[in-house]
Automatic annotation (TrEMBL):
Signal peptide from the UniProt entry: none
Protein name: PsbQ-like protein 3, chloroplastic
Family: Belongs to the PsbQ family.
GO molecular function: calcium ion binding
Subcellular location: Plastid, Chloroplast thylakoid membrane
Gene Ontology cellular-component terms listed: chloroplast thylakoid membrane; extrinsic component of membrane; photosystem II oxygen evolving complex
Keywords: Chloroplast, Membrane, Plastid, Thylakoid, Transit peptide
InterPro entries, alphabetized: PsbQ-like_dom_sf (IPR023222), PSII_PsbQ (IPR008797), PSII_PsbQ_pln (IPR054099)
SUPFAM superfamilies for the chain: Oxygen-evolving enhancer protein 3
Chief localization: plastid
Length: 185
């Protein structure tokens, strides 16, 4: 008995490729470029898709790992339980507060990297906890959550601008907001 290998080939007869004519309309005429083969995609949509694909593919190749850390796209850790977030929040808060030594040594770039990394973990934890508490307690925690991460963003910008006084002001606000959040959880 002989076996023939199974070869899978896509059937492209149902999805023909689409192309757009490349001629630019003149200012005198209001004509748009003709579409070839009945495309349903606008030029803006195709351009947007191409831009997103190029960003996602080039994230680590072109920019390198240190810049790619600035592109944090996920908001909530998948399948993170309420109890898990409660157990991890204090560790992530302590890790966030460890940027104090980097601020003191004025290592602005490193402070930004550590801030972005640790604030992302803390944001996931706090968001998960807010979703798990009763509805009447959520607005107060949401306000503190917003205050905390607005100050984290301001600290990031101040570190970029190397404005030490603003960095310290934002750091102090972060410490106060974290203490408020942790006391209410």
């Amino acid at each position: 008995m002989s076996f023939t290998p199974l070869v899978l080939q896509p059937n492209l007869s149902y999805y023909p490729p689409t192309f757009t004519c490349c001629s630019k309309p003149s200012f005198g005429s209001r004509e748009m470029p003709q579409r070839v083969l009945g495309s349903n995609f606008s030029r803006r949509r195709v351009g947007g898709i191409a831009a997103m694909v190029s960003i996602l593919l080039a994230q680590e190749v072109i920019f390198g790992q240190e810049v790619a850390e600035g592109f944090e796209l996920k908001m909530v850790a998948p399948n993170q339980a309420f109890e898990e977030a409660l157990s991890e929040i204090r560790g992530h808060a302590q890790a966030l507060l460890q940027i104090k030594s980097l601020i003191e040594s004025e290592s602005w770039g490193e402070a930004q990297k550590v801030l972005r990394k640790n604030s992302a973990y803390l944001k996931q934890d706090i968001y998960t906890i807010i979703q798990g508490i009763p509805g009447n307690e959520r607005p107060e925690l949401r306000k503190l959550y917003s205050n905390l991460f607005n100050n984290a963003t301001r600290l990031d910008y101040a570190a970029r601008d190397k404005d030490a006084s603003r960095v310290w002001q934002c750091y102090d606000n972060i410490v106060v907001a974290l203490n408020d959040i942790l006391s209410r959880i």
